[in-house]
Amino acid sequence: MTAPKGHLPSRYTTEGVGSSFHRVFYYAMGLTTEEIHQPHIGVVTSWDDTVAIHDEVRAIGDRIKERLWAHGLTPREFTTVPGFDGAGSAAAADPLLVSRELISDSCELTVRGHCYDALVAVGASCLSLAGLAMAGCRLDVPTVIVGHIDRSDVDGLAMAAALAELGLGADSVASGEPGSSRIRDTAIGASDALADRLARRERPRAGITQIALEQAASTLGVYGASSEPFLHLLALANEAGVTVSLRDLLRSADTAAAADATTRSSLLDGTPAGATPNKKRRYAYLEDGLAPAGSICIAPDGSTQVTGRARVFTSEDAACRHVDHSMTADDVIVLIGQGPRGGPGMRTCRRLIEACERATDRTVVVVTDGLAPGGDRTIVVACVTPEAVDGGPLRDVADGDQISIDVTSASLEWRSAGLAEPPGGTLAATDEIPPTLWKYVQLVGPASEGALTHPGATAENHCYADL
Q1: Rounded CA gap, 101 and 235, in Å?
Q2: Which of 46, 101, 122, 133 has the smallest number of CB atoms closer than 10 Å to its CB?
Q3: Is 374 helix (H, G, I), strand (E, B) or coil?
Q4: 93-126 as b/e, with b when 16 or more CB fall inside 10 Å?
Q5: Could you tell me whether strands 296-300 and 378-382 are parallel, antiparallel, or unpaired per DSSP bridges?
Q6: Quick one: fold of 281-430+438-443?
Q7: Are 247 and 215 in contact (CB under 8 A)?
Q8: For the chain, which residues make up each domain, given as ranges?
Q9: Closest C-alpha to 427, from 397, 466, 383, 465
Q10: What is the DSSP string of 66-82?
Q11: Pick the CATH number of 5-244 from 3.30.1490, 1.10.150, 3.30.2170, 3.40.50
């Protein structure tokens, strides 16, 4: 491929007398004159030894580089953090969305600093795929995102499929597939797609429209995704300068989730081989009572109305102990202090949902300002906004208060019983947290808007791709 350098950012580091300093370094790294003057492609992977299956993405990155060379392109590999959404989430800190920002920011700075012309990114989780996609949209250079996802990772599979709907994805490969042919084919497909997008000067933001985002949300609904990927779609919309509401995304997800089997299957084209959707769930946007600025409700199919008495906790450990040993039939578990600022970084209460699933054969309700997956017998109201540390109504909920949820009418009502002192008064967003999390707390916005840390494309004076 011989794309002209006239419009490519890499002309600032490879062309003319002013770039002689940069070319010295390229020659020192073994590049030939021809390779220096070809378009430069950033190849970023999240490979490392700290998170399961991320170590395998390096093989995909190596194959991608081989194919890019064959296209007459010059690949330049770099890495980013894998995302702290598994083994990296210690009890003392669960910086889920903080690592999303680290991924997108580090990719942006690397591409900007080296003036790369396009981006191929390989991630292995919902979080890493989201951060990589955000970087591609922020830079607005031709971008291809490849997912290497564990078959059991519903959110990861859903996010990979959603990115394909947005025109950012390529064929993904499920972790554990035997042999190397699937990895080779995936790498070839991604590299070919990137070369084509570069030749056509296709930019990511062009595919991020309200309609495309709602279609991506439909894919999340078919998979039975948790609350997390919906926040990532809001963040992608922000990077592209598109206005879309959480209400619209959840409506699309619910419509798709409630569709017949044939329609649901038609939304799964292009996903990793062997991937299957989760059990059918319903989605609703609740903006009432406890959530005046919105929340995400995920309910088992058929569960619509529940009324109970609040049991309020400020830690997941305490909530799990209560569920395991002393939960009563009308308890509504309220877990506060888990949001973008209260977490900080937004905690995912997976262990609590797992405890509720095994504790009883009846429907349990969990209300939280953090993230949460759905359950087979658990109605989850997550991302309640404003969060407790920001003075939202959740801060004033106390044990014994009445909470009523109606999924069909999208209502979340709360009545104080005045029986106990609310524990939310003890919460503080910046008490004894590490410096990186402190900085995040100063910047992050509400979960119902995607937990954003910057105003997005609408506030840009210029776009990197237009250098």
Answers
A1: 10
A2: 101
A3: coil
A4: bbbbbbbbbbbbbbbbebbeebbbbbbbbbbbbb
A5: antiparallel
A6: Glucose Oxidase; domain 1 (3.50.30)
A7: no
A8: 5-244, 281-430+438-443
A9: 397
A10: HHHHHTT-EEEEEE---
A11: 3.40.50
Strand order in the sheet with 74-79: 74-79, 40-45, 118-123, 143-150, 173-175
User: 């619209």: which residue's tokens?
Assistant: 248
Tell me how crowded residue 148 is: count the other CB atoms within 10 A of its CB.
Answer: 31
Torsion of CA 151, 154, 155, 156, to 10 degrees: 10
- Measured in residues, the chain has a length of 467
Are 413 and 434 in contact, with CB atoms under 8 Å apart? no
Residue type, 214: E
Amino acid (1-letter code) at residue 330: D
Which amino acid, residue 385? T
pTM: 0.94
Owner of token pair 């590490």: 434
DSSP 8-state assignment for residue 42: E
> Cα 144 from chain centroid?
16
Q: Report the distance separating Cα 409 and Cα 160, nearest Å.
A: 31
In 161-217, DSSP assigns E strands to 173-175
- Radius of gyration over alpha carbons of the chain, in Å? 23
| Encoded tokens for 196 | 């084509």
Task: Return the structure tokens found at 364.
Answer: 């349990």
Question: How far apart are the C-alpha atoms of 328 and 325, rounded to whole Å?
Answer: 9
**281-430+438-443 shares the fold of 5-244:** no
CA atoms within 13 A on the CB side of 130: 33
Report whether 399 contacts 310 (CB < 8 A).
yes
Strand 402-406 vs strand 305-313: parallel, antiparallel, or unpaired?
Answer: antiparallel
How many CB atoms lie under 10 A from the CB of residue 243?
A: 10
The tens-digit pLDDT sequence of the chain (467 residues) is 444 588 999 999 999 999 999 999 999 999 999 999 999 999 999 888 877 677 678 889 999 999 999 999 999 999 999 876 554 455 445 678 999 999 999 999 999 999 999 999 999 999 999 999 999 999 999 999 998 888 888 999 999 999 999 999 876 555 555 456 777 888 899 999 999 999 999 999 999 999 999 999 999 999 999 999 999 999 999 999 999 999 999 999 999 998 866 666 666 655 544 455 556 789 999 998 899 999 999 999 877 889 999 999 999 999 999 999 999 999 999 999 999 999 898 999 999 999 999 987 788 999 999 999 988 899 999 999 999 999 999 999 999 999 999 998 899 999 999 988 898 877 876 667 889 999 999 999 999 999 999 999 999 999 999 98
DSSP secondary structure letter of residue 329 = T
